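**Backbone geometry record:**
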Amino acid sequence: MYSPIIKDHYGIKVVRDDLLPGGTKSILLASIDNPAINEFVYASPVYGGFQIAISIYCKSVGKKATIFCAKRNVMHPNTLKCIEHGATIVEVPYGYLSVIEKKAREYCKGKPATHKIVFGASTDENKLLIKNRVLAAIKTLGQEPDEIWCAVGSGTLISGILLAVSEKVKVFGVQVGADFKDRSNHNLTIIKYPKLFDKESKLKIEFPSMPNYDLKAFETCLQQRGGGLVLFWNVL
């Protein structure tokens, strides 16, 4: 596993996973990859970020990425990014996520060398991989941060963060997509970003950050962070 690269930006320690081919979740893809797989399949909202991570990762390892998404009159910029990185796009009319998921499952039937990735790669195994990566980041820092901030989509990242830290660390998740259901951890605060998932943050910063995902969380972090050592997780 690549050691996290942490850089200082605006007084915040930022995990720069945008420097990895495919971002944070490329670590999860590498963990399930094996020589028997030649194609990864994923069903994605058109404005999702993981589809881009899969496309970049597959291009970097010489495998096929097939992305199922809703058909639109004009392709979403994120869909075009997937195409730019070599992915095959399958557009589904009336593409509610449940419909897209069904089409992706049907596509994979009878193809043993094709692997369908669950939404957000949200599995217990992957949450443990994130936990270990968070622990590596804390080791690099030399101490636990006072606060950790990240965007919340499928919840895989923030679940892994919560597994890694002690009760004294305040964890802030900026909800940019669907509701994050598990709010039982007392040191977790969920902040809902005021704009819908497909609307982009207009914040201009000095490092790459996905405008409808991580950048929204960083914008909120800049506005609402407390004192002490603050760590932000930039996924892609």
About this structure: The mean pLDDT is 92. DSSP finds seven helices and ten strands in the chain. The beta strands are 6-9, 12-16, 39-43, 64-70, 88-92, 114-116, 147-152, 170-175, 188-192, 230-234. The CA atoms of residues 65 and 87 lie 5 Å apart.
